[in-house]
What does this fold into?
Amino acid sequence: MAIEYNEDSAVTVRNAREDDLARIVELDRQISGISKPDYWRESLRRFGNARKARYFLVAEKDTLIVGFIVGEIRAWEFGTPPGGWVFSLTVDPDTRLGGVATVMFETICRYFRQAGVDKVHTMIDRSNITVMSFFRSQGMMAGSTIPLEMDLADFTTEQAEVL
Ligand SMILES: CC(C)(COP(=O)(O)OP(=O)(O)OC[C@H]1O[C@@H](n2cnc3c(N)ncnc32)[C@H](O)[C@@H]1OP(=O)(O)O)[C@@H](O)C(=O)NCCC(=O)NCCS
It folds into this structure.
């Protein structure tokens, strides 16, 4: 996977590496309020290093990582044909509204396309207006699937009997 430079935003998009971990953890902590080094280490192991159909990209500006995007191609989950999924997208609050997320999103979409899929999916919290506005600006719209969830608090934690 080539390193991509975008002149308009002066951003370079490249594969994430092990030594990017600390900055990725810090960017995520700034937004989520929780430091999750183990989670991001595992995420880098699974999606980093240009693995087939897996993408962990960072955006670099003046040698500082200002954002990252994570995604992969998944096939037949929830009955959907092979498609690209974006799991995480974050841009440094000091660098926002400068086109950084757009460059990363366009790059991952191009990789999805080169890998042969023709749809990109994501899932967002409906109260996250900023992220919603971003994805809408890229042309994404509500799909035909909806997430369902249920509280498990009433389920016993006793071990189920294995027959
Ligand atoms: C959403 C996010 C990635 C956008 O990054 P960005 O680099 O600022 O986005 P861009 O500059 O490429 O914006 C492209 C378009 O998105 C829309 N947009 C982005 N931020 C917006 C905002 N705060 N309000 C309204 N529209 C917005 C605009 O249409 C914008 O185009 P414009 O600048 O011509 O108006 C960034 O705000 C972010 O990291 N937010 C927090 C992410 C988060 O909550 N992550 C956890 C869940 S994955």
User: Anything to note?
Assistant: The CA atoms of residues 29 and 75 lie 31 Å apart. The chain has four helices and six strands.
